[in-house]
Design brief:
alpha+beta; 4 helices
Length: 375
C-alpha cells in the first residue's frame, strides 16, 4: 500500500514538474516572440529617425539656399535701382544738351541768314565774325560728341539692365522652385513625424529609450570634452570682456518662454535637463550669446541640428533642435550674430530652441548667466 502511495506521489510530482516546465517553455517562447516584435519595431523606428534626419538636413540645405537667393535678389535690386538713377541723370543731361544744341543751331542759322553788309555793320570786324562762326561750330561739334558719348552710355546701361533683369528673373524662378521643393519636404516631414508618433504610441520600451538617452548624453559629453581639448588654443582678446565677466549680462539666443528649466525632469523619463528648452515659433533667428568659434555643426540624435560654439576658457554654448544652421565649423562669431533658425529637428514634439551652457564639460544654469528672461 505504502509503495503504491509513493508511486502515485512520484507520478503527481513528475506531472506537476512537466506542467511547470511546459509553462516555462511557453513563457520563454512568448518572451522571445515579444523581443522579436520589439526589435522589429525598434528597427522601424531607427529607419524613421534616419528618414527624418535626411529630411531635416534637406530642409536645412533648402533654407540656406533660399536665404542666399534672397540676399542675391536684394543685391541685384539695389544695383538695378542705382542703374535706373544713373539712367535718369543721363537722360536729364542729354535733354539739356539737346536743348542747348538746338539753341546754338538756331542762333547759327540766324547768323547765316543775315546779309553780309548787315553783319559787317553789326560786327564792324570781318575777322571777328569769322572767329565767332568758328567758335559756334566748335561748340556744336563738342556738344554733339558729348551727346554721342551719352547715347553710348545709355546703351551700355540698357544692356546691363537687361542682363540684370534676366538674372533677377532666373533668381526668382529658382526661388519659386526652392520654395515649392521646401513645401514638399515639409509635407513629407509631417507624414514621417505622424508615422513616428503612431509608432511611439505602440512602443512601450522605456528602458530601451532611457538607455538611448543616456548614450546620447554620454556621447555628447565625450564630444564636448574632445572639442574642448581641440579648441583650447582660442586666443584671448584683450579688447573684449571674457565670458566669465559677462555672467548675468548675456542676451538670450532667441525670444520665447522657458518651457523646461535647467535641472528639471525631462517628461516621460528619469533624465534631468542639462539645459533649457525655450518655446518659440519655427524659423525664429537664433543668435550667438558671445564671441567665439564654431566647434560643431551637425545632426545629433537627441538634439537634432546642433551647433556648439567655443568661447574659450572652458566655456561652450549649445544650440539644439534647429531648423537650419548658418555657420560652419571654424567660423568666428560675435555676440548677436545670427547663427541658426529655431525648429523641432531631432523629432522633437515642441517647436523651440534647446539651449545649454557648459564650463569644462559640466552643465551650468543659463538663468545665472543670461539677463532677465528670453522674452
Amino acid at each position: 500500500m505504502a509503495g503504491g502511495l509513493t508511486s502515485s506521489s512520484t507520478l503527481l510530482a513528475a506531472s506537476d514538474f512537466d506542467d511547470k516546465n511546459l509553462k516555462l517553455q511557453k513563457l520563454r517562447q512568448l518572451i522571445g516572440q515579444q523581443e522579436k516584435r520589439l526589435q522589429q519595431k525598434n528597427r522601424i523606428k531607427d529607419q524613421e529617425y534616419q528618414q527624418i534626419k535626411e529630411l531635416e538636413l534637406s530642409i536645412h540645405r533648402q533654407l540656406v539656399s533660399i536665404r542666399q537667393l534672397e540676399e542675391k535678389s536684394l543685391t541685384l535690386n539695389d544695383k538695378a535701382t542705382r542703374l535706373k538713377q544713373e539712367k535718369t541723370v543721363l537722360l536729364d543731361h542729354l535733354a539739356m544738351q539737346r536743348e542747348q544744341l538746338s539753341e546754338e543751331l538756331r542762333l547759327f542759322y540766324i547768323l547765316q541768314r543775315q546779309p553780309t553788309f548787315k553783319l559787317l555793320l553789326n560786327q564792324k570786324n570781318p575777322a571777328r565774325l569769322k572767329r565767332v562762326n568758328t567758335y559756334i561750330n566748335y561748340l556744336s561739334e563738342a556738344r554733339t560728341r558729348k551727346m554721342h558719348d551719352m547715347q553710348e552710355k545709355l546703351q551700355e546701361i540698357a544692356q546691363i539692365d537687361a542682363s540684370l533683369q534676366a538674372t533677377l528673373q532666373e533668381v526668382s524662378s529658382t526661388y519659386s522652385r526652392k520654395k515649392t521643393a521646401l513645401q514638399k519636404l515639409d509635407a513629407r516631414m509631417a507624414e514621417r513625424k505622424k508615422a513616428l508618433v503612431l509608432l511611439e504610441q505602440r512602443l512601450k520600451v522605456e528602458n530601451r529609450e532611457l538607455s538611448r538617452l543616456y548614450k546620447d548624453s554620454k556621447g555628447l559629453g565625450l564630444l564636448l570634452e574632445n572639442l574642448r581639448q581641440a579648441l583650447a588654443d582660442i586666443p584671448a582678446e584683450t579688447h573684449k570682456k571674457t565670458f566669465h565677466e559677462l555672467k548675468g549680462q548675456l542676451k538670450w539666443p532667441v525670444s520665447g518662454r522657458i518651457f523646461r528649466a535647467f535641472g528639471t525632469k525631462v517628461r516621460n523619463t528619469v533624465q534631468i535637463s542639462r539645459g533649457v528648452l525655450i518655446a518659440t515659433d519655427t524659423g525664429q533667428e537664433v543668435t550667438a550669446i558671445s564671441h567665439g568659434r564654431v566647434a560643431f555643426t551637425s545632426w545629433l540624435r537627441g538634439f537634432g541640428l546642433l551647433m556648439i560654439v567655443d568661447h574659450g576658457n572652458g566655456f561652450m554654448s549649445l544650440y539644439g533642435q534647429n531648423q537650419a544652421l548658418y555657420k560652419e565649423v571654424g567660423e568666428w562669431v560675435d555676440m548677436g550674430d545670427v547663427i541658426a533658425i529655431s525648429g523641432n529637428s531631432g523629432a522633437q514634439a515642441r517647436n523651440g530652441l534647446y539651449f545649454e551652457l557648459r564650463h569644462n564639460g559640466e552643465p551650468v544654469d543659463p538663468m545665472l548667466w543670461c539677463a532677465g528672461k528670453p522674452g
